[in-house]
Design goal:
The complex is a heterodimer of chains A (116) and B (114). Chain A is built from no helices and twelve strands. Chain A is mainly β and 116 residues long. Chain A starts with a strand and ends with a strand. Chain B has 114 residues and is mostly beta strands. The relative contact order of chain B is 0.33. Classes of the chains: A mainly beta (116), B mainly beta (114). Chains A and B meet through strand 5, strand 6, strand 10 and strand 11 of A and strand 4, strand 5, strand 9 and strand 10 of B.
């Protein structure tokens, strides 16, 4: 079974600073994917970035990058030049590609607050 | 392109009643997923439908059920409501081979059981 651990319940960062949100995962599947989602107070989950277990390079999407360290089983999200609109809950999630499982397993989330 | 839509936005029921939640996926998406986000418990996978069939089910009792219609929209039914069913219910949709693009979520239905 897959498990995601996010050890930072909350983080406070000054606007324009970079921020790293931690995520470690546990899976026995040889092939898996890792995701980050943002959940503003409105409740909608917004897909940010994806990393496949066989991808050689770290994924990047605009100001978001995923620091993937396979040996350490970590998939930290880095947000560069943070903005006030980045304040939200952030969830790390994983999926197995085996047996067409197709379900996301989420961590408990990190509440990020950007201060002006 | 319209995103995933869910209705109603809020639903208030009493214990023992039944609740029906609805979801319309992004046009062209054939898979629909349901998740429960209870306070303090994170998101838990409920159900996955694809091409009208239930493909996978999370660790929830049988009173949580659903279906997918020919137009790929989906319904989640919760029978014999209990207080602990109060949660945000999120629907997501995806294409085949979706892991490259992620699952796309709707705004959710907040169910309150009194």
């Amino acid at each position: 079974a897959q498990k995601i651990t996010q050890t930072q319940p909350g983080m406070f960062v000054q606007e324009k600073e970079a921020v790293t949100l931690d995520c470690t995962y546990d899976t026995s599947d040889p092939s898996y994917g890792l995701f980050w989602y943002k959940q503003p107070s409105s409740g909608e989950m917004i897909f940010l970035i994806y990393q496949g277990s066989y991808d050689q390079q770290n994924a990047t999407e605009g100001r978001y990058s995923l620091n993937f360290q396979k040996a350490r089983k970590s998939a930290n999200l880095v947000i560069s030049a943070s903005q006030l609109g980045d304040s939200a809950m952030y969830f790390c999630a994983t999926i197995s590609h085996l047996q067409g499982a197709q379900k996301l397993v989420f961590g408990q989330g990190t509440r990020l607050t950007i201060n002006p | 392109e319209a995103g995933v839509t869910q209705s109603p936005t809020h639903l208030i029921k009493t214990r023992g009643q039944q609740a029906t939640l609805r979801c319309s996926p992004i046009s062209g998406h054939t898979s629909v997923y349901w998740y429960q986000q209870a306070l303090g418990l994170g998101l838990q996978f409920l159900l996955w439908y694809d091409e009208g069939e239930e493909r996978n089910r999370g660790n929830f009792p049988p009173r949580f059920s659903g279906r997918q219609f020919p137009n790929y929209s989906s319904e989640l039914n919760v029978n014999a409501l209990e207080l602990e069913d109060s949660a945000l219910y999120l629907c997501a949709s995806s294409l085949a081979g979706w892991y490259l693009d992620g699952q796309f979520f709707g705004p959710g239905t907040r169910l309150t059981v009194l």
